[in-house]
Amino acid sequence: MKKSIAVIASALALLLILASCSGGGGNIVLTDDEDSGTHDSGEVFSFSGGTNISLAPHDNLESFIKAAGEPLNYEESNSCAYLGLDKVWTYSGYTIYSYPVDGVDYLLQLVFTDDSVKTSEGISIGATEAEVKAAYGDGFETVGNAICYTRGDTVLQFGLKDGRVTSIVYNAA
Fold first, then answer.
1. What is the enclosing helix (H) or strand (E) of 2?
2. What is the Cα–Cα distance from 138 to 62, expressed in whole angstroms?
3. What is the pTM for the complete model shown?
4. Long-range CB contacts (< 8 A, 24+ apart) of 94-100?
């Protein structure tokens, strides 16, 4: 539970950092593949784009961003945590947050923004808590109003209100 709280706190801290430092790319198909291409630290929750480019948190975003196409919105700001630019790409149905290392953008977080995107298990915003648990099992931790599943370097978080999913976030742990 401490790890999940730390991951959620880190994600929230990044969002605050982006805000304080700040001066349509088709569908995403989500999978739970153990091998996510460039990601090599073991089993993770991962997802892939329409061109079968597999991606997981901490992976290089270059190929995925090219395959996703023109975003609806793009923002960048000097990173307060890393040398380089923090970047945010907003597409129809999801938003991608990155962190820079040596001039390369790596995936930090993917946030579903509406019910047009589903996990490979068929879960989208609006699903019931019971549907999430049926799809992902009992191996979760409750953190506030969210249930969090951890796999390798990824935390898959389902925000809940009145028994329904209000947010879905993939976080790099």
1. helix 2-21
2. 35
3. 0.73
4. 94/28, 96/61, 96/65, 97/14, 97/15, 97/18, 98/61, 99/14
pLDDT of 46 strictly over 80: no
What's at 169, amino acid-wise? V
Q: Which residues contact 53 (CB under 8 A, 6 or more apart)?
A: 37, 63, 64, 67
pLDDT at position 6 is 44
Q: Which two tokens stand for residue 50?
A: 């329409």
Residue 102 neighbours by CB distance under 10 Å: 7
pLDDT at 153: 82
Structure tokens at 144: 């506030």
Read off the amino acid at residue 82.
Y
Q: Which of 71-75, 115-119, 126-130 has the lowest mean pLDDT?
A: 115-119
The Cα–Cα gap between 42 and 37 comes to 11
Q: Which of 171, 172, 168 is nearest to 123 (CA)?
A: 168
pLDDT digits (tens, 9 = 90+) for 113-126: 988 888 777 788 99
Integer angstrom CA distances of residue 82 from 8, 51, 86, 162: 19, 30, 8, 38
pLDDT at 35 over 50: no
Give the position of tokens 């935390």: 155
